[in-house]
Write a structure and sequence with these properties.
The chain is built from 20 helices and 21 strands. The protein has an eight-stranded mixed barrel with strand order 1-2-3-4-5-6-7-8, surrounded by four helices. The chain has a five-stranded mixed beta sheet with strand order 16-17-15-20-21, with helices on both faces. α11 (about 315-325) crosses α12, α16 (about 440-450) packs across α17 and α17 (about 450-470) packs antiparallel against α18. It starts with 6 loop residues before the first helix and ends with a strand.
């Protein structure tokens, strides 16, 4: 038999076992798939899984061994009963194509024997052997895509091909390597990179899995940047006992959605969603053509797989040229032509869950100038379509609301939005970092240098906040020389937030010197009248920061006590050498 294994490796396969690790929907906590992971390799004398595969490769048995391993894995996968639509992520060694006995159709035979559909399987392919292999990963990926299997690029971001591989192969799933999550609370730049990779993949119509989530903070970052799916020890460690897998991970759902009650930004999104009719990707082209003819106002059609998951959109302009010529119609209707296959006419489209924040949806749309809209899913299945016009209308409504409630001088959110933010902090179970800024000696500066220069100083501080505080910070202007900033979720460590505040204090203290005369800078003070009318020396402008940290374990939170603490600490901060006072709510 062409793919027969020597008895040694048949016996080894008996000893080897399979563990499964869940991949879940980050918004609902529902299980989406499991990744199969090999176990018991050390019982066979191998230091790692990689060393085992290296040996079967060197013996020319890689493909034969892998086929038997697939069979063993899929048989055990079939015993999992948590969800009838569960997917299996199976890791492929990219050196398979080098084996002389590599042939097509063997996986399909295994699936047919076990009565499992092809779209249940997602093959994970990594760049680990790309440099040494005689074949490009792209060749392997295209082979399995042509056989109608889903493809995931594993360990994305650490291989040498990177974005080129993403562009060339257009996978169904992108698994972002743990490197971008590890210690993200200490390295804010990693969050920027994670957001960038995630948004690029989503705009290409690719599902994103954050791999190796090990902490609550990492989980919340993944939610904040728009990842669809998560996997890692924080969800569940790989398990050999399939009975320990769950259909839904309630603790994860509670963590990622515990602020939905206080966040009403998505309450009206449903009224903007178009329930556009969708077609299956295997629909015959004559039916597609007939649909466009009967629905002449339809310009796009979402296209789904058999699991009702979006795979792209079909625009009417892609087939109009064929519709209006006899040859073109014949080409489309020719079952042997690539043009007759609906999948080859699709355009990628960004996909977002119905529970995604409006901020993420707007970012995804704004970052792609060619975007015609975003497909909305619910529990990974097609729900509707958010058109470009609908998103622009939402943005305009938000801008109008923002304009009404912003401070006219700095264009930052004003008191109404600040009160709303603090009210959210008191009703939420999340952790918060709140900071109240007060410009020191501002009245004296205003009296000596005039209101116009005073306004310029206020605008300077507003600009410093915008440019030097990360995007996730809420930045607001209370009025006069008082400002407010805050961040929820505490996805990075407290000392990072404190360092950000210290940077603001130093930056303002340095930059504001440009507003003084040379004489006053040399003296280090100005002469002005105090509130009693007495002439006295006033130090040059600085800023004081009153900070309060609310941990997620704090259940009793009072709106008035938070305001009182911030106000009282402001006086303490003015006396501190660092100009910062800090406390935690207990």
């Amino acid at each position: 038999m062409k793919n027969k294994l020597p008895k040694k490796w048949i016996d080894n396969l008996e000893i080897l076992d399979i563990a499964f690790q869940p991949i879940i929907n980050i918004h609902t906590g529902k299980i989406f798939a499991v990744e199969a992971l090999l176990r018991n390799t050390q019982k066979l004398g191998f230091k790692s899984i990689y060393s085992l595969f290296d040996e079967v490769y060197n013996n020319g048995l890689l493909y034969s061994f892998d086929l038997e391993l697939r069979k063993k894995t899929i048989k055990k996968f079939k015993t999992i009963k948590v969800d009838k639509n569960l997917k299996l992520f199976y890791n492929l060694d990219s050196r398979l194509f080098e084996m002389e006995n590599f042939t097509s159709g063997n996986t399909k035979k295994i699936l047919n024997d076990l009565n499992i559909k092809e779209n249940t399987i997602c093959f994970e392919i990594s760049e680990r052997h790309e440099i040494d292999s005689k074949f490009e990963m792209q060749t392997l990926i295209e082979h399995y895509k042509n056989e109608q299997y889903s493809i995931a690029i594993d360990d994305f971001g650490i291989g040498h091909s990177g974005y080129k591989l993403l562009y060339d192969t257009k996978p169904d799933v992108l698994k972002i390597d743990r490197f971008f999550l590890m210690d993200i609370n200490k390295h804010p730049n990693k969050k920027i990179m994670l957001r960038s990779i995630t948004h690029l993949a989503i705009q290409l119509g690719i599902q994103v899995v954050a791999e190796g989530v090990e902490t609550k903070e990492e989980l919340l970052v993944c939610r904040d940047v728009g990842c669809h799916l998560v996997q890692g020890y924080y969800i569940q460690r790989p398990t050999r006992d399939v009975k320990t897998l769950s259909s839904q991970y309630e603790d994860v759902l509670e963590i990622v959605n515990n602020n939905l009650r206080s966040d009403n930004s998505n309450h009206d999104i449903h009224k903007y969603i178009d329930k556009i009719h969708a077609l299956n990707v295997k629909t015959k082209m004559n039916i597609v053509m007939e649909y466009f003819k009967k629905n002449i106002e339809t310009t796009i059609l979402p296209i789904l797989n058999s699991r009702n998951e979006p795979v792209g959109i079909l625009q009417d302009k892609r087939i109009k040229d064929y519709l209006y010529s006899t040859y073109g119609r014949a080409l489309l209707l020719n079952e042997d032509s690539r043009k007759s296959r609906l999948k080859n006419l699709l355009n990628p489209c960004a996909i977002a869950d119905i529970h995604s924040s409006m901020t993420i949806i707007i970012e995804l749309f704004s970052n792609n100038p060619e975007s015609i809209g975003i497909i909305i899913t619910k529990d990974s299945e097609y729900y509707g379509f958010l058109s470009a016009r609908a998103i622009i209308n939402i943005m305009n409504e938000q801008n109008l609301l923002y304009a009404v409630e912003q401070n006219p001088l700095t264009k930052l959110p004003g008191n109404t939005m600040i009160e709303r933010y603090v009210a959210e902090a008191t009703s939420s179970n999340e952790s918060y970092f709140l900071c109240y800024f007060d410009l020191d000696n501002f009245k004296a500066f205003n009296d000596v240098y005039g209101f116009r220069n005073g306004d310029r100083v206020i605008q300077l501080f507003a600009d410093i906040m915008r440019k030097n505080l990360p995007q996730e910070y809420f930045k607001a202007h209370i009025g006069g020389d008082d400002f407010f900033t805050a961040v929820k979720g505490m996805s990075i460590e407290e000392h990072i937030h404190i360092e950000n505040i210290q940077k603001i204090v130093k930056k303002f203290t340095d930059d504001v010197m440009e507003f003084y005369s040379v004489e006053d800078k040399e003296k280090g003070f100005i002469l002005s009248k105090d509130r009693e009318g007495n002439r006295k020396e006033f130090p040059l402008l600085t800023v004081s920061a009153s900070v309060i940290i609310i941990h997620d374990k704090i259940k009793i939170r009072s709106h008035s006590s938070i305001n009182d603490i911030l106000s009282l600490q402001k006086k303490v901060a003015k006396l501190e050498l660092s100009h910062i006072s800090l406390s935690c709510l207990i």
